[in-house]
Fold each of these.
Amino acid sequence: MCTEEGANLQRGMNFHLKGRHSVILMSLRPGAPYSDRVEENGKVLIYEGHDIPFHKGGPDPKSVDQAEYNPGGSLTQNGLFYEAAKKHKQGVKAPELVKVYEKIRSGVWVYNGLFKLVDAWKEESNARKVFKFKLELLPSSSLASRANIQKIDHIRLIPTSVKLEVWKRDKGRCVICGSQDNLHFDHIIPYSRGGSSLVAENVQILCARHNLEKRDKIV
Ligand SMILES: [Zn+2]
């Protein structure tokens, strides 16, 4: 899945990987372990924090508060993301950059884009405390480097149902080279030119390389 990260990610939340950016894994599938959701037409992701690890003989992780600190006193992944969001809100630190991968079906993870962590809070859910993190989608780095700021408004996530339809049609491969690694969902007509995120006809699968090459031609 995440060969691009140089690590086989086992955990759903990975704060500040190798000091560069964070990586989180999300799922909007029915029965997913956490209730992640997408808001504001796909521009905002509300991501749920993670439960304490399961221990034989220990409590059901779903029955107790999500932890901010490990038993030894260090911050958990929830705590690390929470601290970063607080520092950003206080104006002390730039927002943490977070790469988001989404599980669209069993064993299939796709890149959902680069987000910035803008807020975090704790809330009651089923009589326990859970963490919530608010992330805003950023333009891709190749667009950002060209300062195409007006395009930010048009950026949105492609709904999972559309991704699944495209995945089946394109057989889980880059439509140009057939690669099965680092796949991105690409708008055939960019949203900035009126292309829709909501129909499979305007979406195709590209590998990271062909995705970048296409963007470079368009911009
Ligand atoms: Zn390709």
Amino acid sequence: MANYFNEEFETLPRAALEALQLKRLQSTVARVYANVPFYKQSFDAVGIKPEDIKSLADLQRLPFTTKQNMRDSYPYGLFAASMDEIVRIHASSGTTGKPTVVGYTQKDIEIWSELMARSFMAAGAHKGDIIHNAYGYGLFTGGLGAHYGAEKLGASVIPISGGNTKRQIMIMQDFGSTVLTCTPSYSLYLAEEAAAEGVDIKSSKLRVGIFGAEPWSEAMRGEIEANLGLDAIDIYGLSEIMGPGVAIECIEEKHGLHIWEDHFLPEIINPETGQLVAEGEKGELVITTITKQGIPLIRYRTRDITSISYAPCACGRSHGRIARMSGRSDDMLIIRGVNVFPSQIESILVRVEGVEPHYLLIVDRKDNLDTLEVQVEVNEGIFSDEIKVLQTLSRQIEKEIKDMLGVTCTVKLVEPKTIQRSEGKAQRVKDNRKL
Ligand SMILES: [Zn+2]
């Protein structure tokens, strides 16, 4: 059966889990009310005192926290621990202006390491594995988060970080890497570069890939598994909440990501109204941290769109599962009134014979009408075919996108390897309308 890093807590029966959540929520609320002026003011504004939190449902009475609140408190305004207790500082790059800063106490680092170790085991990794950690090391939480978790697990971690792909391929082969951690788009790039070097990455020792930091589709999983010859597992996290390891798929089901509910309280809300949606319904993920000391967050609006299920899982873990992210409520494109997530277009493209999962969406406005151009790479075989074949393929993709998403677009097939590769998060959208 399943292997657990912390069997007792990973399989805690629901009633015991909820009792623990309430106790931890109450202590977190008391902590932020006492230590963080922002929370004291926002709780006072709605007339709530920490002792009013008597059940998990009372969480809904508390106000949301947003990325803007974090920016306004830059850099340390939301910290609930004094600086002499903070042992680590990370930051996520904002799309505009100053980064979002987070601080960890020693206890926070220990919990993060454990949750990453649990995540590795859920993904099918274990002590004895050689973990090739190609997440970037630095202010970004990906590299160090995975690193500490791998050590906690007792695996051998290669802190290769991002970039220098040729060297990555050499080290992966020579060192016998068995687990790969990076962004999903980078894994495909690695496979492509390996093939160009004449290396058959499928026959390498890689067994498991743990991919996150950007949304990806089920269809892309198929591509990655076929191209790299491994089990591709989706991991979720964000620096504001902790970093990687907030939630992960188990290898038994690969169907929804267990969110570690003894440390995080998930809610799914309608992003317009702020009201909870029903189990299984899509909405924005809101997370309350219930054990963090450095920077606990109450009802943090992640802007990630997902749904949650509490159905039992084959792996035996009792923690609810969030669906793989289907986009962000703030990267959603609205094209002629139609809501479009890049991941939806991706899932159509990867099903089309002859095209590669490397694409760029160019949105523009001409004569007051939104236009969408989908640039997608074709493979070598197709590209050498006659123009007529290419035209037929373009029309076919345009029709599929129209049928599936209800949006009209122009598909432009481009030569293999012409769309810019990223060694971090892939840039999928160029929205020229804002210029
Ligand atoms: Zn499971």
